[in-house]
Amino acid sequence: MSPASTTELSPKKLKREVARRRTFAIISHPDAGKTTLTEKLLLYGGALHLAGSVKSRRAAKHAVSDWMEMEQQRGISITSSVLQFEYKKHFINLLDTPGHADFSEDTYRTLAAADSAVMLVDVAKGVEPQTIKLFKVCSMRKMPVFTFVNKMDRYGRQPLEIIEEIETVLGIGVVPINWPIGMGKDFKGVYDRMTKEVILFDSEGTHGEAIVDAKTIQIEDPKLATILGDKGYAKLLEEIELLEIAGEPFDLEKVRNGEQSPMFFGSAMTNFGLAPFLKYFVEMAPSPEDVKNPPVSPTRPDFSGFIFKIQANMNPSHRDRIAFMRITSGRYTRDMQAHLLRENRTMKLGYPQQFMASERELVEEAYAGDILGLYDPGYFKIGDSLSTGDPVEAREIPRFSPEHFAVVELKDPLRRKQLDKGLNQLSEEGAIQVFRQPHVGNQTIVGAVGILQFEVLKHRLEHEYNVKVLLRTLGFKHARWIGGEFDEAKFERQDYTMVLKDREDLPILLLRNDWALNFVRNNEPGIKLLTNPPGTPGLEELHGKGWGF
User: Fold this and answer.
1) Residues that bind GTP, according to the entry (predicted)?
2) How far is CA 21 from the centre of its chain?
3) pTM of the shown model
4) 3-state percent breakdown (helix, strand, coil) of the chain, nearest 5
């Protein structure tokens, strides 16, 4: 980032800076290669000189986006990372989301800060459950989705089969921008349908650790038949002709409306196909100004932004807490004052940081579309809105009803204060939900969407707060907040329910199984069973509003 200007920001400069921003998230099923793709995009953007994949031959290296110790141990992403780099005069904000399904709530929040998404599909597995779930969220927002078919260096399903599955299962038109030549050890390159050129990759290299060499050749060049062999060349021409006759034509307006997905083929592990993908992605992906129906114009001179993520202890030696803010309009300058809508107070936004995983640098200025990390002494909540001009409504970010529950048992009773601090911070960042059982002393119950969140909770309490706990799981399947008249004592006497209070002291009912849920629903007509706290939108409510940020 350049130093902050001492002169007033001109509308022309603001428009120019906003136009070069691209803010996107990567979505996929676990093990589709998302962390590897993230790292290789950084390599091509010049942010890395040597890529170190979690599965590379040099196993001592860890993926740069996996900053948490537990991520490095397991080789999976369990937190959202925010990574920034420049590429061909564009400024890229890349939001790497948790790949594990148990952490999908964090992914949903991250998608609220993105303008587009890259959907990663494993060529051998096609469309998988987590991909479907996350695509639906993108679809609610009418968010542009770019498809990257990964692992072409391995054998998998035929490209036409992948296209048909995406169109059938996800209900979106697919337009291949390039087409693969071969698969597995025979993956030689891609045909660029826009330029009608063939891009051939050099298979000799550094096992994906450096940018691969490629050469371009015209499709009509006789040398191509020699390189691919007569059979391979004839097959390529036949597939190209089929795409031209039967394929859907590319329509940028449909892409921007989330109705059509440009498709690319490649291998994140070997770097084949990444340069062609990046080239078209920065051209086709929307800048903040291209996003449909934003709540505020990105080129409005007044600054505004919202908090979409809070992360404690990114730097264990400082025990700090960072609030991640997406800028929605204007320009941010270091140490500026802004109005926090929820508390109706003006505050200084100090120590602004941008990230390369655990590495950070202070920022002098940033623009609409950018992601900043703000030092947070405990002021912010997820969804908070900040502005210097007219108030901008807080973003509606969905909350999820937990599906797994456990009693927290402290091994050393003298560490109660540290436990409370840890649970408070981790619940504020959305890692878990904390409840208490009325009339049962200090007993704390935690809820999570996925069971792996409990493992992460134990690990983080021990390594970040020096607190060891046992988690005794409870045999309940559903949690519902209560609306309407509620006789608490009546439900405390049942063995198929448990009454708890959340952090806001709102009653929440745990139900042992589907039968219990249906029984209460059918026999207590005066009670509303809510999947979200009263006044907090869930996915269905946001879908009804179009979730158009």
Assistant:
1) 28-35, 96-100, 150-153
2) 17
3) 0.82
4) 30, 30, 45
Binding site residue list: 28-35, 96-100, 150-153
Of how many residues is the chain composed?
A: 549
88 within a domain of the structure (yes/no): yes
Find residue 307's DSSP bridge partners: 325
Residues 6+ apart with CB under 8 A from 491: 497, 498, 499, 509
- The CA-to-CA distance between both ends of the chain, in Å, stands at 26
Is the same domain home to 276 and 322? Answer: no
Q: pLDDT (tens digit, 0 to 9) for every residue of the chain, 549 residues total?
A: 444 444 578 999 999 999 999 999 998 887 888 888 888 888 887 765 444 443 333 333 445 444 445 444 444 443 446 788 888 899 999 987 765 555 556 777 888 899 999 999 999 999 998 888 889 888 888 999 999 999 999 999 999 999 999 999 999 999 999 999 999 999 999 999 999 999 998 766 555 667 778 899 999 999 999 999 999 999 999 999 999 998 899 999 999 999 999 999 999 999 899 999 999 999 999 999 999 878 899 999 999 999 998 887 766 666 678 889 999 999 999 889 999 998 899 999 988 887 654 567 888 899 999 999 898 888 898 889 999 988 877 666 767 788 899 999 999 999 999 999 999 988 888 778 999 988 777 789 999 888 888 988 998 899 889 999 999 999 999 999 998 777 888 888 788 999 999 988 899 999 999 999 999 999 988 888 988 887 665 555 555 444 443
Domain that holds residue 320: 1-20+291-397
* Positions at the binding site for GTP: 28-35, 96-100, 150-153
* Total domains present in the chain: 3
Is there a single domain that holds both residue 385 and residue 301?
Answer: yes
Same domain, 131 and 266: yes
CA 82 to chain centre: 9
What's the number of CA atoms in the CB half-sphere (13 Å) around residue 25?
26
**What does the alpha-carbon distance between residue 515 and residue 526 come to, in Å, rounded to a whole number?**
19
- Exposed, middle or buried by CB within 10 Å (0-12, 13-18, 19+), for 69? middle
What would the two tokens of residue 229 be? 């062999």
Query: Beta-carbon neighbour count of residue 485 at 10 Å?
Result: 9
| 248, amino acid identity | E
Residue 355 pairs in a beta bridge with 360
Q: Which residues contact 237 (CB under 8 A, 6 or more apart)?
A: 219
**Token output for 206:** 């550094």
Query: Do 12 and 99 lie in a common domain?
Result: no
HSE-CB at 436 with a 13 A cutoff on CA atoms is 13
Taking CA 430 as the corner, what is the angle to CA 295 and CA 446, rounded to the nearest 5 degrees?
145
What is the distance between the alpha carbons of residues 35 and 51, in angstroms, rounded to a whole number? Answer: 11
Q: Are residues 85 and 123 in the same domain?
A: yes
